[in-house]
Amino acid sequence: WGTQASGILLISEPDDFAKTNRFVLLQKRASWVSGGAGKWAPPGGAFNPEKFKGGELELAKKIILKDSNIESISSIEYEKSYDTDNIPLKLDPNNKDHLQLFLASAVQEFKEEAGVDLNSIGDYRVLNISVTQKDDWNYVTFVISISPDQKDTVQANLETDSESDAVMWVP
């Protein structure tokens, strides 16, 4: 599925009043999917710039990092849109300007595989960005934190696609 991809590990913060656990959302990949068939993993997939051509891409305006393995980035400010006709074919996950595109791709993959548009649930925080590089292959995982109320909204809209056998919250 290409040489660059991204995904989202979605974390629901505990409800202090109810003293509940923190949960993460995982998907069980369909048996036919390459790379992790039948395994539980965060929703994610290939970055394909052609998906974004000719339209306006809704992007996170600000990425706030609590802890990051990408040096010297603590906060990234962006414009809300991106010229989709000028997306580079190869992104550099260590280039903070390209992180916005990796995140947009991860949000799109999340919507395809879990049925939820994270841009519709309100503000969320990126707690961490993990970059895995091997030879010419890059995978960027965004660890995103949401509130218990946002978790309820996500739960109400969860649905699987052909690439997922199941999607569920795990304590």
Describe the protein.
This protein has 171 residues and is an alpha+beta fold. It is 17% helix and 32% strand. Strand 7 and strand 8 form a beta hairpin. The longest helix is centred in the middle third of the chain and has 19 residues, at 96-114. The chain is globular, with a radius of gyration of 16 Å. The model is unreliable at 60-81 (pLDDT under 50).
Quick rundown:
The protein is of the alpha+beta class and 171 residues long. The protein is built from 2 helices and 9 strands. The relative contact order is 0.28.
Using only CA atoms, what is the Rg?
A: 16 Å
End-to-end Cα distance? 30 Å
Average per-residue pLDDT, rounded, comes to 75
Low-confidence stretches: 60-81
Characterize the biggest β-sheet. Answer: 7 strands, mixed
Helix content: 10-25%
**Number of distinct beta strands:** 9
Shape verdict? globular
Strand percentage: 25-35%
Quaternary state, please? single chain
The count of helical stretches stands at 2
Secondary-structure element string:
EEEEEEHEEHE
Structural class: alpha+beta
Features of the shown structure:
single chain, 171 residues, alpha+beta, 7-stranded mixed beta sheet, 9 strands, 32% strand
Fold topology:
Blueprint: E1 4-12, E2 23-29, E3 40-41, E4 44-46, E5 62-64, E6 75-77, H1 96-114, E7 125-134, E8 137-146, H2 148-157, E9 164-170
Parallel strand pairs: 1-8
Antiparallel strand pairs: 1-2, 1-4, 2-3, 2-9, 5-6, 7-8
